[in-house]
Amino acid sequence: MEDIQKIKADKQIEMDELTKKMNEKNKLENEKEKSELTLNNKKDMLVTYDKEIKNLEEQIKTTANFLFKEGDIDITRNRIKVQEQMLKESEAQFITLITRLRGNETRAKELKSLIEKISALDKCTTCLQIVNEEHKHNIVVKAAQDMKSIESQNFSDKKEKEELQNKIEQTKKQIEALKQSLSQLEILKIRLESINEKQSRIKSLEKQKTTILADIDMIKKHIEGIDSLLREFSSYDLLYQKKAREMKEIISNENSFMIKKAEIKAEIQFIERQITSLEAEIKKIEDLGKKLNYMKEIEFWLNNKFLQFILFTEKNVMLKLREDFSNIFSQWFSILVSDSITVRLDESFSPIIQQSDYEVEYDYLSGGERTAVALAYRLALNQTINSLLSRIKTRDLVILDEPTDGFSESQLDKMRDVLNQLNVKQLILVSHEQKIEGFVNNIIKFKKVDGVTEVEK
After folding, report:
1. What tens digit of pLDDT does each residue of 210-254 get?
2. In this predicted structure, which of 43-47, 134-138, 225-229, 406-410 has the lowest mean pLDDT?
3. Which long-range contacts (CB under 8 A, 24 or more apart) does 71-77 make?
4. Do domains 2-233 and 316-455 have the same CATH topology?
């Protein structure tokens, strides 16, 4: 790597020198390209100016052939004014004539209506006297003469109306034609006035052409100078390409060694990671060995020491629990049954019934005694569980279903004491005994109607 990098540094110095030369060459080529572009633009401008000059000369030639007099415009304007005045007068006469025709028509209608009314009139509408026929005749004749005079006037006016309409139309056409002629004359005047401007424009374009031709010559000389310099740089092209190939080969060799070096580093890192992983695994196994020895010691202690202690403790706890349970069971039973019968629990928590120091089977007891055994057992069980489990949610609730089945009157009386000694917040009894009703605060009675149980209201 060190040998290759040293060769690369020497080659890089040579490449830098050649690169400077090539940059100079590129600048000359760019300068030549810009000059050629400018030259083409100048040539295009010459073509554009030649076309514009030719077009202006043709316009001047065409406009110069037109015959034009400055006074023709004033004459035409005066003629338009005369015709417009004539049109205005004719239109005024036409309006007067129309007004007179309409008035005569209205007057004729009024006379016609008068003739019809007079002809049909017998009496005067004011004095109610009979109208003289001669008087009526005179009025009708006078109205008829007026109507004839109006009709004659209307005939003459209608003829004059037609003549005025024709005259107005002809006058309008003449005014329109004169306006078109005036417009053409004004356009021709503008064209003639623009000839001087066009001639000035031609002179300006000729001057610009002269300047552009001088610029073209200068640009061509500049391009020739650049070509001469570029020929001097042509010898560097082959040398630069040769050095570039050598540099590329050196860089390729350097990259190969760098890849090998990177592979070796990666292999070293991989082996180091394996070593670290194995060391961690060894430590983990050692820790597991320590934990295993500790667990074996715990297992030995549990099997040989702790279990015996637990069994001994459990046995003592169960003995104490059975003793307490049995005493409570016996106390409840003694309250309910005052005879010579006593009860206690054996090791399996089963009731043992004794009478005169002899055990008695449960089946040989009377119904009330059986119920007393069952009730005392359940009350003792409830009290024992509540004493063991302080957080039980039903410690203040007792539900008894038929707790007095088979009880005698005396046992029912004792049942009141039992219920009072329970000391719970809520006690629910299900019973058919009416006497029990006196022991409780609230009574809910049920009955069956068509086989369905309902609450009595």
Report:
1. 888 888 888 888 888 887 777 766 666 666 677 777 778 888 877
2. 134-138
3. 72/185, 73/182, 73/185, 73/186, 73/189, 76/178, 76/181, 76/182, 76/185, 77/182
4. no
Torsion region of 442: left, alpha or beta (phi above 0 gives left; psi -120 to 50 gives alpha): beta
Q: Cβ contacts of residue 288 below 8 Å, gap of 6+?
A: none
Q: Which sign, positive or negative, has the C-alpha torsion 208, 210, 216, 222?
A: negative
CATH 3.40.50.300 correct for 316-455: yes
**Residues sharing a CB contact under 8 Å with residue 376, sequence separation 6 or more, in sequence order:** 329, 330, 332, 333, 336, 343
Bridge partners, residue 351, by sequence: 345
Task: Judge whether 222 and 35 are in contact, CB under 8 Å.
Answer: yes
Q: Which residues pair with 103 in a beta bridge?
A: none
Q: Tell me what the pLDDT averaged over the chain comes to.
A: 82
**What are the domain boundaries of the chain?**
2-233, 316-455
Return the number of other C-beta atoms located less than 10 Å from residue 240's C-beta.
19
Q: Helices (H) and strands (E) in the chain — how many of each?
A: 7, 7
Long-range contacts of 341-346 (CB under 8 A, 24+ apart): 341/369, 343/373, 343/376
Superfamily of 2-233 according to CATH: Helix hairpin bin (1.10.287.510)
Range with lowest mean pLDDT among 42-46, 72-76, 94-98, 238-242:
238-242
Per-residue confidence (pLDDT) for residue 288, from 0 to 100: 92
The torsion angle over the Cα atoms of residues 231, 233, 234 and 236, rounded to 10 degrees, is 160
For residues 277, 283, 289 and 290, what is the CA-based torsion angle, rounded to 10 degrees? -150
Provide the pLDDT for residue 428: 92
